[in-house]
Design a protein that fits this description.
The protein contains six helices and six strands, in the order βαβββαβααααβ. By secondary structure, it is of the alpha+beta class. It has two domains: 77 residues, no CATH class; 51 residues. Strand 3 and strand 4 form a beta hairpin. The two termini are 22 Å apart.
């Protein structure tokens, strides 16, 4: 069986694309990696492809060769379940209160306000950033995506 070579991308571009998809998921924002070139394309329902200098014919060829869709936070389980994990690990006395915020709209705003009042907002941001980094790296390993700037390219 032939082993597929890792697609190499720029780490910062991938992280930016992940944020683009996560923030704009309701607005039809998507991003993908061309398997053939490692090029990341961002797409907005309103604006079309962003930063794409290829003409339509070249874009179609790249898509025929295969693409890897870049997931959003929800797909990597970095939404409500991450908040609950944070609460259970770092604020066990408040985990029911925090979980209750997610029964209605505006949950993240109430959650952040609560953390601010408790002096835990920076801890949340650090926790979220670490979990996001780990989830993206795991996704990269599962999808044979490596980084051009990584000296250990085969280890993602």
């Amino acid at each position: 069986m032939e082993e597929r070579r890792a697609v190499l991308v720029d780490r910062e571009e991938l992280e930016d694309a992940f944020e683009f998809v996560s923030v704009g998921q309701r607005d039809g924002c998507r991003a993908w990696i061309s398997v053939a070139t490692g090029k990341i394309t961002l797409h907005s329902a309103d604006l079309g492809n962003l930063g794409d200098d290829e003409d339509d014919e070249e874009g179609e060829k790249a898509e025929e060769a295969g693409i890897i869709a870049i997931p959003d936070k929800k797909e990597l389980d970095l939404g409500r379940s991450l908040v609950i994990r944070f609460a259970r690990e770092l604020m066990p006395d408040d985990d029911d209160t925090i979980a209750g915020y997610f029964d209605r709209r505006g949950a993240y705003g109430r959650f952040r306000d609560f953390l601010y009042r408790r002096g835990m907002l920076e801890r949340w941001y650090a926790f979220e950033a670490q979990a996001t980094k780990e989830a993206i790296l795991a996704w990269c390993r599962e999808n044979d995506v490596g980084f051009v700037d990584d000296p250990k390219r085969n280890e993602t």
